[in-house]
Automatic annotation (TrEMBL):
<keyword id="KW-0813">Transport</keyword>
<feature type="transmembrane region" description="Helical">
    <location>
        <begin position="38"/>
        <end position="59"/>
    </location>
</feature>
<dbReference type="InterPro" id="IPR001905">
    <property type="entry name" value="Ammonium_transpt"/>
</dbReference>
<dbReference type="InterPro" id="IPR029020">
    <property type="entry name" value="Ammonium/urea_transptr"/>
</dbReference>
<feature type="transmembrane region" description="Helical">
    <location>
        <begin position="106"/>
        <end position="128"/>
    </location>
</feature>
<feature type="transmembrane region" description="Helical">
    <location>
        <begin position="263"/>
        <end position="283"/>
    </location>
</feature>
<feature type="transmembrane region" description="Helical">
    <location>
        <begin position="135"/>
        <end position="157"/>
    </location>
</feature>
<comment type="similarity">
    <text>Belongs to the ammonia transporter channel (TC 1.A.11.2) family.</text>
</comment>
<dbReference type="InterPro" id="IPR018047">
    <property type="entry name" value="Ammonium_transpt_CS"/>
</dbReference>
<dbReference type="Pfam" id="PF00909">
    <property type="entry name" value="Ammonium_transp"/>
</dbReference>
<feature type="transmembrane region" description="Helical">
    <location>
        <begin position="203"/>
        <end position="223"/>
    </location>
</feature>
<dbReference type="InterPro" id="IPR024041">
    <property type="entry name" value="NH4_transpt_AmtB-like_dom"/>
</dbReference>
<feature type="transmembrane region" description="Helical">
    <location>
        <begin position="169"/>
        <end position="191"/>
    </location>
</feature>
<feature type="transmembrane region" description="Helical">
    <location>
        <begin position="235"/>
        <end position="256"/>
    </location>
</feature>
<feature type="transmembrane region" description="Helical">
    <location>
        <begin position="289"/>
        <end position="309"/>
    </location>
</feature>
<feature type="transmembrane region" description="Helical">
    <location>
        <begin position="12"/>
        <end position="31"/>
    </location>
</feature>
<keyword id="KW-0924">Ammonia transport</keyword>
């Protein structure tokens, strides 16, 4: 089978874009935490790359897309034929039409790996400031094995949800609802941060937040347009819809802030952009541009209010994973049952209520999938988190939490705030001294 070099080149680029999103998430989350825990927060994203990559090559691809050597696809989990990825070396994946758009199987596998990585990393934002690093590593391995790989198989690997007709173009259910439900479970397992919600726990570096949001926005084009697995009109539609929905959501969040709080903030525009990216993810290849704008605007406004749920319900979701990813993912997934038109697809896939035969069947399926996946992820994450907490412990000591998790766990600090002394050989030691006149002394 001949490889389509154009498709292959695009998919390699898209894979790199999606992988870049995890360091982008590290900046986004890192900036939102307090200065004493920024390194730990960023480390939780980076170690997700390590853990999930090793699990993927050993059994993750097989559990998600593998078979047992027969023609029937398992309903609930893949097979073991591709364990170790050795069987994928040198093989080619057929394109959408069976010829053309062909790419090496390893490129497809690498692309899907990057989705698994960032899904795990997303969860970490809910437990910022208070989780043991080793316990997080153990949880990440257990959750990706027991939850992400099976759920991805259900929706994208030919499993039971795919057979029923559930649609998820790039991961609204598989990635965002999945991660958001797990984040909610861990927030309950670890409990509230010391002093929350009475003490202000503001982002320590909004520049990091904006940088992270920008990297996520950039990488998301690979996330969404790449999910077409081809270079065609649907990929172009997904690309444009991603931009439109994200901009609309960021604008909607700013409007909510302006009328509710009196100020439009940098944290708001960053959070709104991510909310739009989340909501358009399941729908980007299936809706018209006007619908993408409407979806983004609605999602931005809903998520702007959704982040306040933690204060009303009493769970400490540190960085609003639930309010943005779970809520935004649900909005995007359900929207397919209303506005999906599949404008460039020659397919019999279900259309939304306002198109086709105006049937509510697809809407029902798009409600079913978030409920099933959300409940499954929450339950397994809670059990897994509780088991870790009861054995090796999941939460750091109170003293370490107060003093700062970076020093306590990693023996590092993101910022060297120690005073400089003359004679150390540093630039500070040779800086021109400031004259001490009466005004300086008075100001001091």
């Amino acid at each position: 089978m001949t490889i389509d070099t154009g498709t292959t080149a695009w998919m390699i680029a898209a894979t790199a874009l999606v992988l870049l999103m995890t360091p982008g998430l590290a900046f986004f989350y890192g900036g939102m935490t307090r200065a004493k825990s920024v390194l730990n927060m960023m480390m939780m994203s980076f170690v997700s790359i390590v853990v999930v990559s090793m699990a993927w090559v050993l059994y993750g691809h097989a559990f998600t897309f593998g078979t047992n050597g027969n023609e029937t696809v398992n309903k609930f989990v893949g097979g073991i034929k591709e364990v170790g990825l050795q069987s994928l070396v040198g093989t080619v994946r057929p394109g959408l039409e069976g010829d053309g758009d062909n790419m090496p199987d390893l490129v497809f596998s690498a692309f899907q790996l990057t989705f698994a990585i960032i899904t795990v990393a997303l969860i970490s934002g809910a437990i910022a400031d208070r989780a043991k690093f080793g316990s997080w590593v153990l949880f990440a391995l257990g959750w990706v094995t027991l939850v992400y790989f099976p759920v991805a198989h259900w929706v994208w690997g030919g499993g039971w949800l795919a057979t029923m007709g559930v649609e998820d173009f790039a991961g609204g259910t598989v990635v965002h609802i999945n991660a958001g439900a797990a984040a909610l479970a861990l927030a309950f397992v670890l409990g509230k941060r010391k002093g929350w919600p009475k003490e202000p726990m503001r982002p320590h570096n909004l520049g990091y937040v904006l940088l992270g949001a920008g990297i996520l926005w950039f990488g998301w084009f690979g996330f969404n347009a790449g999910s077409e697995l081809a270079v065609d009109t649907t990929a172009g539609l997904a690309f444009m819809n991603t931009q439109l929905a994200t901009a609309a959501a960021a604008g909607a969040w700013l409007l909510v802030e302006r009328f509710r709080d009196g100020h439009a903030t940098s944290l708001g525009v960053a959070s709104g952009a991510v909310a739009g990216l989340v909501a358009i993810t399941p729908a980007c290849g299936f809706v018209d541009p006007w619908a993408a704008v409407a979806l983004g605007f609605v999602a931005g406004a809903i998520c702007a209010y959704g982040v306040g749920l933690k204060y009303k319900l009493g769970y400490d979701d540190s960085l609003d994973v639930v309010g943005v990813h779970l809520v935004g993912g649900v909005v995007g997934a359900i929207s397919l049952g209303i506005i999906a038109r599949y404008p460039f697809a020659d397919t019999e896939q279900g259309q939304g209520v306002i198109y086709g035969d105006h049937s509510f069947k697809q809407l029902g399926l798009q409600v079913l999938a978030p409920v099933v996946v959300g409940v499954y992820s929450f339950v397994i994450a809670f059990i897994l988190g509780k088991a870790i907490d009861l054995t090796i412990g999941f939460r750091i000591d109170e003293e370490d939490e107060v003093n700062g998790i970076d020093i306590a766990v990693h023996a590092e600090s993101a910022y060297d705030l120690a005073p400089s002394h003359a004679g150390t050989g540093t630039l500070a030691s040779v800086a021109t001294p400031v004259a001490t006149d009466s005004k300086v002394e008075a100001d001091a």
